[in-house]
Amino acid sequence: MNEENKDLIRTIKQNFTKLSKGQKLIAQFIMDNYDKAAFMTASKLGDKVGVSESTVVRFAGALGFDGYPKLQKSLQELIKTKLTTVQRVEMSQDYSSDFEVLNKILKSDIDNIRNTLEDINPKAFEDVIDKIASAKKIYIVGLRTSSAIADYLGFYLNLILDNVVLVNYGISDVFEQIIKVSEEDLVIGISFPRYSKKTYEILEFAKKQGATIVALTDSHISPIATLSDNTLLAKSNMASFVDSLVAPLSLINALIVALGMREKDKIKGYFDKLEHVWKDFNIYEEQA
Amino acid sequence: MNEENKDLIRTIKQNFTKLSKGQKLIAQFIMDNYDKAAFMTASKLGDKVGVSESTVVRFAGALGFDGYPKLQKSLQELIKTKLTTVQRVEMSQDYSSDFEVLNKILKSDIDNIRNTLEDINPKAFEDVIDKIASAKKIYIVGLRTSSAIADYLGFYLNLILDNVVLVNYGISDVFEQIIKVSEEDLVIGISFPRYSKKTYEILEFAKKQGATIVALTDSHISPIATLSDNTLLAKSNMASFVDSLVAPLSLINALIVALGMREKDKIKGYFDKLEHVWKDFNIYEEQA
Amino acid sequence: MNEENKDLIRTIKQNFTKLSKGQKLIAQFIMDNYDKAAFMTASKLGDKVGVSESTVVRFAGALGFDGYPKLQKSLQELIKTKLTTVQRVEMSQDYSSDFEVLNKILKSDIDNIRNTLEDINPKAFEDVIDKIASAKKIYIVGLRTSSAIADYLGFYLNLILDNVVLVNYGISDVFEQIIKVSEEDLVIGISFPRYSKKTYEILEFAKKQGATIVALTDSHISPIATLSDNTLLAKSNMASFVDSLVAPLSLINALIVALGMREKDKIKGYFDKLEHVWKDFNIYEEQA
Amino acid sequence: MNEENKDLIRTIKQNFTKLSKGQKLIAQFIMDNYDKAAFMTASKLGDKVGVSESTVVRFAGALGFDGYPKLQKSLQELIKTKLTTVQRVEMSQDYSSDFEVLNKILKSDIDNIRNTLEDINPKAFEDVIDKIASAKKIYIVGLRTSSAIADYLGFYLNLILDNVVLVNYGISDVFEQIIKVSEEDLVIGISFPRYSKKTYEILEFAKKQGATIVALTDSHISPIATLSDNTLLAKSNMASFVDSLVAPLSLINALIVALGMREKDKIKGYFDKLEHVWKDFNIYEEQA
Questions:
Q1: What is the distance between the alpha carbons of residues C74 and C38, in angstroms, rounded to a whole number?
Q2: What DSSP assignment string belongs to A211-249?
Q3: Which of A94, A99, A267 minimises the CB distance to B89?
Q4: Hey, which bits of B142-211 come out as E strands?
Q5: Cβ–Cβ below 8 Å for C169 and B169
Q6: Which residues of chain B does C148 touch, with a Cβ-Cβ cutoff of 8 Å?
Q7: What PANTHER family does the entry give (chains A, B, C, D) (predicted)?
Q8: Nearest CA in chain C to B172
Q9: With 0-12 CB in 10 A as exposed, 13-18 as middle and 19+ as buried, what is D163?
Q10: Contact D85, D241 (CB under 8 A)
């Protein structure tokens, strides 16, 4: 992140008290929704916040920008790699109580899922299901926090299909696990801010080998989206120091169920076998 | 699960075509919401579905129950351990398209979060934050699919605190990792249907050693809820063969942020150090 | 372990000071080599230690046994499940210095490898290589401390072959990972004292599905040896509270190299590709 | 590795048939023991192989070196990062049978342990035990194949001590796991050829934070040896495409037992508790 962008957030915070009431509303909206604000015209941003377009333009000036387009461009660069954790802790709102946090976070996650549903391309979703169903081998790649939801996706795809490889760290490096990838294979990459560099490198390698790439990410300008044949977007906004993987997880639920519905008879026979093993080896709590 | 309960679902499905239009509405509601229906009176269930109380009573009779209370009891037993995967695949609705699946699942997850927020006890949430902040050591226990969100919680608590142990499988058994637990420690158990037996056993062991137990689960009658000092409930309903960990993950986000807000200055200094390491070792994508 | 066996070790220790000089030599030999002593006649044991057969018989009497065969039988039962860790800590010799420990342990591991080499059945070793080379899928199962060497074997077999599954704990249970095993597959089980019950159960399950079983273990009477089509024995003796996996690891080295020699051209092409990836992504230290 | 070194092995192989009988003995010795040959004078190398010093000098000339010291220097550079896997597969001897492989590998591992014992510095071994016993926190770092023996060491140290952290990949990066390291802590690094770059970087980071560093490695000129306060050397030579971790594992056994002997009473009480848990939860096979 270049110095100018780091300064943007600092500038907003430093100038906050000096802003007019309307400008404060804009500042608050940008800090909570910088990824949306980055793509709004001055007029639309004004509408959203309930101030006039000229208030937005004056706000840009108050922060030292030579017009709103300059501010907007700065916002767009900002979201490319999102903020550092330190900036995000600084930006975090002050809450009056633990319960206010709870209320705010859960509502924010409801918005994330709702926006994901509104924005998704139904054709892309269907295409991805088709590709999973027809690939020779399916590799799932998600590192760092994204590994939590990659593991979950891998667990269920492994129950439904026979040809799933979950790429993760262990005694072997991630590259060794995907080195045999070929053009008949599908690689599902999962990457949310702050984007893991290694995930990008693995997908870049797989693409060079001719594999089909599906990106599960938060934006069409995220690093892995630039490599993918299909991109599924899920919102991960959170006005705090964590990104939320709630909407991505919900989207993964939908992928699993949609795939399962196509293989209904196959998985019934298979789950029947599993139920016997689970019972024989006492994996789950039984009813008294 | 005893035979009677297995029969309940089968009975509903087998008799479905013979039911009256109003009874079909009840049947559908129960199959989609058996965990709620299990605790509704005949009158309330009728209201919810839009039929009369006597239609509900006749519905119970049509399924062979000697009155509505018998049907209700059967439902209550059913949810104790939830359905087998085979039953759930059978119960799954047929969808007309992949997009209908997506739409249904994401809306269902929105409902899960909303219901979690409505039902949660603010005092319990605050208590849990207090206990995490004051425990000598914090153990996190979540196995099978719950391990995905336990890992996520462990990752962030380890960034904020110095005394967090994530209990999971590896070269050592889970019991070896928690054997030194004492009465000054806190154990956060994460367990959703189908409840892992091992998670219950670990928490039972920890309780015997005098540790404080927090249960993150879906119901006050879930196995680990019976062991806990505090219970945080999150909905995991999904009308398909997977349970949804979306609302539990959103609740975990709230736990992380609420805790982080109390330690704001400490984590700022700490993240500052991490940012330097991340930069030096190229962990994240940098802006071009 | 029944009470009689626990008493055997205690009895030897309690009576140690009262024993004659020759009897003390026998006692020491048994404590260091109970697994060998268990299968020696009184005459052979005497030879080994350098005392007469009648001294051995009197030794049995001094411990309260009605003849040497009773003592021998007690020893044989003892090694079935080996000693508890507490007994082994008690039995551990007292060493005069850290360096004496080092000297004793390394020499003991040299003996373990030498005895492994002397006792191994060359035909069984060759058979196992043949079976690995011709199986449809190869599953490797080793839990607890054996998981360390199972991981190592899995790492190298995955470099050489395309069809290797390392069964270990993660988000999915070990049974879920092997549930699709069939009669065309090979399962390599690795189990050393104290034998993991779960490893036995997995191999028993695989055998029922018709898979071929190879046991890598310490004795023909170990639990998994009773299930196997081929057994490769490696010594794991250590006169202390750990078992040694040194000779098993050396045997695994031999398996990897023997297999690699058969696939020499294939792995050369493959390593060539890996070297490029390792170089591109900076996995190894480069020469200055 | 620069071009000259890659050429050295190729040159030896290409010229092999043209060499005199005595020169072939030297060539074979160097290919099997290049790490030893690299530090021998022409005279000593001749003695070892059973040829005259002048034969050694002529051998250097036959390979195109301007004198033996140039050949020796080339060998010394070679071992810094050891050979690539491709070169090692090429260099691998041809064996007449699987059993010959077994025999060769196990004998080679016996030599590795024997040489480890001969060369070790007893004072360094004792120092390391002292440092482990007195450190505030002990971090264990071993990646790639070394992670197998690092896991094993971590498992046992965790049974004996309360303050052990095994640094390995998971949802968090390795750096995040060691970021709180301080000057009161001890970091045990395990690194064998081909040396992992990441292991070096982690130890370098820990050293900068003031931590004490113990290197478990194969040579005083290995990368991590240059960072360490104490170095324990174990041989990992193997005339094939794998390095052997057998002697390092034997040395780890010695570390564990020596430490355990100092804490005998503490671990007895602790194992007693574990035995009850193991029994209650059926971890090990019980005697029939």
A1: 8
A2: -EEEEEES-TTSGGGGG-SEEEE-----SSSS---HHHH
A3: A267
A4: 164-167, 186-191
A5: yes
A6: 171
A7: GLUCOKINASE, RPIR-FAMILY TRANSCRIPTIONAL REGULATOR
A8: C144
A9: middle
A10: yes
Q: What is the mean pLDDT of residues B270-281?
A: 83
Of D114, D241, D253, the CB nearest to C246: D253
Question: In which residue ranges of chain D is pLDDT below 70?
Answer: 1-7, 77-83, 91-93, 239, 286-288
The C-alpha atoms of residue A76 and residue A35 are separated, in whole angstroms, by 8
CA atoms within 13 A on the CB side of B83: 27
In 3D, which of C200, C148, C195, C193 has the Cα closest to residue C175? C200
Assess whether the region A3-82 and the region A122-260 belong to the same CATH fold. no
The predicted model gives B55-80 an average pLDDT of 84
**Res C138: pLDDT:** 97
Q: Which CATH number fits domain C3-82: 2.40.420.20, 3.40.50.12710, 2.40.30.110, 1.10.10.10?
A: 1.10.10.10
* pLDDT tens-digit readout, B83-105: 677 777 776 667 889 999 999 99
Instruction: Please state the domain extents for chain D.
Output: 3-82, 122-260
Whether chain C has a CB inside 8 Å of the CB on D133: the answer is no
Nearest-neighbour CA in chain A from D196: distance (Å): 11
Q: Which of B137, B152, B157, B158 to mutate to test the interface with D (most CBs of D within 10 A)?
A: B158
The answer, for D172 touching chain A at a CB cutoff of 8 Å, is yes
Report phi then psi at B144, rounded to 5: 50, -140
ipTM of the complex: 0.79
**Residue with token string 């040959």:** D37
Q: Choose the mutation target among A163, A175, A185 for the interface with C, i.e. most C CBs under 10 Å.
A: A175
**Comparing A84-93, A135-144, D181-190, which segment has the lowest mean pLDDT?**
A84-93
Going by C-beta distance under 8 Å and a sequence separation of 6 or more, which residues neighbour residue B169? B143, C168, C169, C170
Q: Is D179 in CB contact (< 8 Å) with chain C?
A: no
H-helix or E-strand spanning residue D232: strand D230-233
Highest mean pLDDT among A236-245, B28-37, D43-52: D43-52
Residue A82: predicted pLDDT: 60
**B172 vs chain D: nearest CA distance in angstroms?**
6
**The CATH fold of domain B122-260:** Rossmann fold (3.40.50)
Q: Do C173 and B147 touch (CB under 8 A)?
A: no
Largest CA distance in chain A: 72
**Considering only CB atoms, which chain A residues are within 8 Å of B86?**
268, 271-272, 275
pTM: 0.80
Give the number of beta-carbon pairs within 8 Å between A and B: 237
pLDDT above 80: residue A92: no
Q: Are D126 and C97 in contact, with CB atoms under 8 Å apart?
A: yes
Maximum distance among all alpha carbons in chain D? 72
Give the three-state DSSP class for D148: helix
| Signed CA dihedral, C185, C190, C191, C196: sign only | negative
**Sign of the Cα pseudo-torsion (A64, A70, A71, A76, in order):** negative
% of residues, chain A, pLDDT over 70 = 92
Residue C78 to residue C64: CA distance in whole angstroms: 17
Summarize pLDDT for A263-279 with one digit per residue, the tens.
Answer: 888 888 788 888 888 88
